[in-house]
Design goal:
The complex is a heterodimer of chains A (328) and B (515). With 328 residues, chain A is mainly α. Chain A is 72% helix and 2% strand. A two-stranded antiparallel sheet of chain A has the order 1-4. The chains are: A mainly alpha (328), B alpha/beta (515). Chain B: Belongs to the ABC transporter superfamily.
Chain lengths: 328, 515
């Protein structure tokens, strides 16, 4: 293995290194950081973001963006809460269905109406947010506790939180799709040059369509988890989720302009953001200093910047660093 | 005067094709008939409509009128994907692949190998290597395509197109970035395809190539077909005359438009480079350019010509060596330093390094000039219009007007826009890397005459060209490079081709520093 290759790998997996460093820091500093309860609750809580970021990752790899994921998740949570009295299946179907509808609208706007993804998904974001408030009657909608719906968000599979298991399965599937199917490789080709891909005879519109639909469904699923976990459909949740998702994707080494990226490092990006948040809470708990939510935001922003700059430096590229290892 | 081959035997029959862009006709009555198992040349001036005809055929553009029969059946495809599935495989002009992705993906996407439903990467890498080995290319197919030079990328594009077992393979100017060795490899593959009964549609501005491999030719002018004939029935002059729409008598037989030069106009030394080196591709290059002189690098692909030019222009870092510009020592850190010192660099890869496709012709021409034609940050639009109009006229840029997007121009016209940008800067030393690549014979002459005139006006020109005639007839002095070392310095018009070719292939010891 030559050094260029090694640096490429460090660049790609830099987020994993940063994650490990953060975990070590937490372990050394806080007594209960690696305790069973804390670990499980971090995993449970961040599963929603992981699902949203997975969809975002695929959209970004095609060179697009999906700004609607946050409000689609909110809409999904309201829809699933409303359907929850009819059982788990109904709740899940309603939430994912709402996401599917939003995803279809995005897909049609982007591939048929040829709107820029930024504009198309911005419109859907506003529409989904309004629909969520309308459906919910401007307040949160309590879920049914009798139908077993809350198990999705609150239950365990053996000792693991069910939402975390769902997210993990989704990432494994996503990773296989990206690396071992023509759909996945076409996603990357489109991001690397849409016109060229079309001239190469690839079905660019079909793949883009799929990607926006998938992102919508995953956001809907995240909404189901949200409602189930907190016992209510939350029409005003999800604000800013799209930005966290973009941050996780970018920290995970995916090129923001598309054409290069990785699924599993996106998961690492999600965990990095989640654990940073967790550590700041611990820090407040220690009582030395008290960080307001605003300061927490500032610190998270700075940390992200440091990780991104570090990776850019390592791979010798400015601003972004494509994961140049192209496929297995 | 279109000869009609036997109807029933045709593989492809396109008739009276019409295509307008925003009301302006790009194709107006174009027709094309290709027989099974023949190599068919498609030629015409820049902007004549060749690439558009191809893109209409493969469903990238929707035609406005006309009929297409493929294998005697009406051919209606909505996308390049469908064309490929129906047996037409295309290499588009300007290498339309994805540089970020691996060579394997660029070759195999669209006909992946699978095992139990999932991609079989080792089989795909092997397939990519196998296809490239037909062109005697050995590279690490796992690396991103963008890591390789233009010629290799072109070969990858060709390998991709051959890999689909098609009945018609279309090649839109495949040879413009290849050297002679690679061209001959390509031709042997073309002949092999022909032997297998596959038809090849071949676009090129290099007429000699056409006589070498093509059976028949179709000539287009201003969007319509003017003639179609067997290659053996039409002479080169006749071909050129039909292309340009002029009389044979008017078209003279010179290979280039560079005439004999009045060498007394050549002035004092403008630029010198001594022992330049930077890594493997440039190891020891020494040369100089005088005012009013056309100096030229000759060498095979990979001799380090472009790489040397990039060093001179500050685009790459120098490891060792000295340069002077107008007798002052010159150490460019970046391209801006070179521009400040009075240099211009017209790159060979216009797509990646020059043209801004989404901007207009006017914007592209005046991009680097903006500070000079603005006062207090405000653009002097009259001045801009005047400059743009002059270059559109002088270089014969075929466009609907200064406000057309460069993306919409034909390949050759994009090259002219790029050249205009640098000329507009009024440089003292102009580096031209393959200035007439992909340019039709008419415009080529115009550009060569322009280069000559610029030199006569005192500009120092460093010209890199893979066309030996251009170097032989155009250059006042020729520096031959081989494997990153300058091996010979020859007097331009006095040298003979054999000497230059011999030096390129196995030249002797490095030249001593010229005084
Ligand atoms: N997408 C487009 N929009 C508008 N005009 C276009 C577009 N594509 C091509 N044209 C115009 O159609 C004409 C024919 O262009 P085309 O690219 O087919 O020429 P060509 O014969 O391939 O030339 P070259 O030898 O330079 O490649 C040109 O005048 C060009 O400006
Ligand atoms: Mg063309």
């Amino acid at each position: 293995m030559n050094s260029a290759r090694l640096i490429g790998i460090v660049g790609t997996y830099g987020v994993v290194v940063a994650l490990a460093a953060l975990v070590l820091f937490g372990f050394l500093r806080y007594e209960r950081f690696l305790g069973f309860f804390n670990v499980m609750s971090v995993l449970r809580y961040n599963s929603m973001f992981a699902l949203v970021a997975l969809g975002m990752c695929f959209v970004i790899m095609t060179g697009g963006i999906d700004l609607s994921v946050g409000s689609v998740a909110a809409l999904g949570s309201v829809a699933s809460a409303l359907a929850s009295p009819h059982g788990i299946a109904a709740g899940v179907a309603a939430g994912v269905g709402a996401g599917l509808a939003a995803g279809l609208i995005n897909a049609l706007l982007v591939t048929r109406a040829n709107l820029m993804p930024f504009i198309a998904t911005l419109a859907t974001m506003l529409a989904a947010s309004g629909s969520a408030l309308l459906l919910a009657g401007n307040q949160s909608v309590s879920v049914s506790y009798d139908s077993g719906f809350t198990a999705i968000g609150q239950g365990n599979f053996w000792i693991f939180p069910i939402p975390a298991v769902i997210a993990l399965v989704a990432y494994v599937v996503g990773s296989v799709v990206l690396n071992y199917t023509s759909t996945g490789r076409t996603v990357l080709a489109i991001g690397g040059g849409e016109d060229a891909s079309r001239l190469m005879g690839l079905r660019t519109d079909r793949i883009k369509f799929l990607v926006y639909v998938a992102s919508g469904c995953l956001a809907g699923l995240a909404g189901v988890v949200l409602a189930s976990q907190f016992g209510a459909g939350q029409p005003i949740e999800g604000v800013g989720w799209e930005l966290s998702a973009i941050a996780a994707v970018v920290v995970g080494g995916t090129l923001l302009t598309g054409g290069s990226g990785s699924v599993m490092t996106t998961l690492a990006g999600v965990l990095l953001l989640g654990i940073l948040f967790n550590i700041l809470n611990f820090e407040n708990g220690l009582g030395w200093i008290s960080l307001s939510a605003y300061w927490q935001s500032v610190i998270r922003g700075l940390f992200l910047l440091v990780v991104v700059l570090l990776q850019a430096r390592l791979t010798g590229r400015r601003g972004s660093w494509p994961a140049t290892t192209s496929g297995p | 005067m279109i000869t009609q081959p036997d109807q029933a035997a045709l593989l492809l029959d396109m008739r009276d094709i019409q295509k307008r862009f925003a009301g302006i006709p790009a194709l107006a009555g174009a027709s094309l008939q290709v027989l099974p198992g023949e190599v068919h040349a498609l030629i015409g001036q820049n902007g004549g409509g060749k690439s558009t005809l191809i893109k209409v055929l493969t469903g990238y553009h929707r035609r406005d009128g006309g009929q297409v029969l493929f294998e005697q059946r009406p051919f209606e495809v909505g996308s390049p994907h469908e064309a490929q599935v129906s047996g037409i495989s295309t290499i588009y002009q300007e290498i339309n692949l994805v540089p970020l992705r691996s060579v394997t993906e660029n070759i195999c996407l669209g006909r992946e190998k699978r095992r139990r439903g999932l991609l079989d990467w080792s089989a795909m890498h092997a397939e990519a290597e196998r296809l490239l080995s037909r062109f005697s290319i050995r590279i690490d197919v796992r690396r991103p395509l963008g890591d390789f030079n233009t010629a290799t990328q072109q070969m990858v594009a060709i390998a991709r197109a051959i890999g689909f077992s098609a009945r018609l393979v279309i090649m839109d100017e495949p040879t413009s970035s290849l050297d002679e060795r690679e061209v001959s490899v390509l031709f042997s593959v073309v002949r092999q395809l022909k032997a297998e009964g596959v038809s090849v549609l071949f676009v090129s501005h290099k007429l000699d190539e056409l006589y070498e491999v093509c059976d028949r030719v179709t000539i287009m002018r201003d969007g319509h077909t003017v003639r179609s004939a067997a290659m053996s029935d039409i002479g080169k002059l006749e071909l050129v005359a039909a292309m340009l729409g002029r009389d044979v008598a008017v078209v003279d037989g010179h290979a280039t438009a560079f005439g004999a030069r009045d060498r007394s106009r050549i002035g004092d030394v403008l630029f010198t480079a001594q022992g330049l080196s930077a890594g493997q591709s440039v190891r020891n290059v020494t040369f100089d350019v005088r005012r009013g002189e056309i100096a030229s690098f000759a060498g095979l692909l990979g001799a380090g010509r472009t790489e040397t030019a990039r060093l001179v222009f500050g685009a790459d870092r120098l490891k060792a060596g000295e340069m002077t510009m107008e007798r002052a020592s010159y150490h460019p850190e970046r391209a801006a330093d070179a521009i400040a010192a009075g240099m211009g660099f017209c790159t060979e890869d216009r797509k990646a390094e020059g043209i801004v496709p989404e901007m207009t012709v006017a914007e592209n021409i005046t991009l680097a000039l903006l500070p000079k034609i603005s006062r207090n940050g405000i653009l002097n639009e009259d001045r801009q219009r005047e400059i743009v109009a002059r270059f559109i006229r002088d270089l014969g840029i075929k466009c609907s007007g200064p406000n057309q997007k460069v993306r919409e121009l034909s390949g050759g016209n994009q090259q002219k826009v790029l050249l205009a940008r640098w000329l507009a800067m009024n440089p003292k030393l102009l580096i031209l890397d393959e200035p007439t690549r992909g340019i039709d014979v008419g415009a080529k002459g115009e550009i060569q005459r322009l280069i000559l005139k610029l030199a006569d006006d005192g500009l120092g020109v460093l010209m890199i060209s893979s066309e030996i005639e251009e170097v032989m007839e155009g250059a006042d002095r020729i520096f031959v490079l081989r494997e990153g070392v300058s091996v010979a310095e020859l007097e331009g018009q006095a040298a003979n081709v054999e000497d230059v070719l011999a030096a390129m292939a196995h030249g002797g010891s490095p030249v001593e520093a010229a005084a």
